[in-house]
Design brief:
The longest helix has 30 residues. By secondary structure, the chain is mainly α. It has a two-stranded parallel ribbon with strand order 1-2. α1 runs antiparallel to α2. The chain has one domain.
Length: about 80
Amino acid sequence: MSAFTKTEALAFIESMRLTISGRTGFRWMVERLSALADYLESIADENDRLNGYLDWADARSDYESYCKQHPLVVPRGHGRVRD
């Protein structure tokens, strides 16, 4: 199970961005946090498209079988973002 929803992750990133916005020496970090939020949005959109394709192609069971054979390894202590 993922540690954060997409909305929670985006809210966290935005809160960090707003906290440091306008502070001397942190413009580079504000830009990177904005880029990170954009990246998260694009990955979530791609995930939605891929899930739509799996359902359209009636390939969900094939994909789930593949996932069981090739589990995703997440480093200990690192949460994954969920939809």
